[in-house]
Amino acid sequence: MDKNKKNRKGVMYSTNPDFEFDYENEKIDTLANNQQNLKVCIDKHRAGKIAIIIKGFVGNTNDLKELGKTLKAKCGVGGSAKNGEIIIQGDLRDKVMDILAKEGYNYKRVGG
């Protein structure tokens, strides 16, 4: 039968006999640091708290989480890494951009 029904993306059932399901766990090759085009945005969340959101990461989830962990540790703040985005708590956009530059990532400042 199929790989794992729980990991199917989007379509739950198809009558097409040649239909191929997309799976969430498929391996995605992570681009090299100098090939990534990240967007560094500033966002105001609930209760007026400011957060930095890094979008556009191309690669697997483990590499995304590793970059998020590095950024959080070097900034000394909390955050999360999921759905292709890294969220860093606080108004630390300049510090985040410095860290990304030292790690060799291409980035672009987006918004105010």
Characterization of the model:
With 112 residues, the chain is an alpha+beta fold. The protein has a single domain (27-110), classed as 2-Layer Sandwich (Translation Initiation Factor Eif1). 23% of the residues lie in helices and 29% in strands. It is built from 2 helices and 7 strands. The chain has a 5-stranded mixed beta sheet, with helices on one face. A two-stranded antiparallel sheet has the order 1-2. Strand 3 and strand 4 form a beta hairpin. The radius of gyration is 17 Å and the shape is elongated. The mean pLDDT is 83.
Tags for this model:
112 residues, alpha+beta, 5-stranded mixed beta sheet
Order of helices and strands: EEEEHEEHE
Tell the overall outline: elongated
Low-confidence stretches: none
The average pLDDT score comes to 83
Task: Kindly provide the name of the CATH class.
Answer: Alpha Beta
Calculate Rg over CA atoms.
Answer: 17 Å
CATH topology: Translation Initiation Factor Eif1
Helix-residue proportion: 10-25%
Q: What structural class results from the helix and strand content? A: alpha+beta
List the domain count as a whole number: 1
Number of strands: 7
What is the name of the CATH architecture?
2-Layer Sandwich
Estimate what percentage of residues fall within beta strands. 25-35%
Counted by DSSP, the helix tally is 2
CATH homologous superfamily title: SUI1-like domain
Instruction: State the strand order across the main sheet.
Output: 5-6-4-3-7
Main beta sheet: strand number and arrangement? 5 strands, mixed
Alpha carbon gap, first and last residue: 51 Å
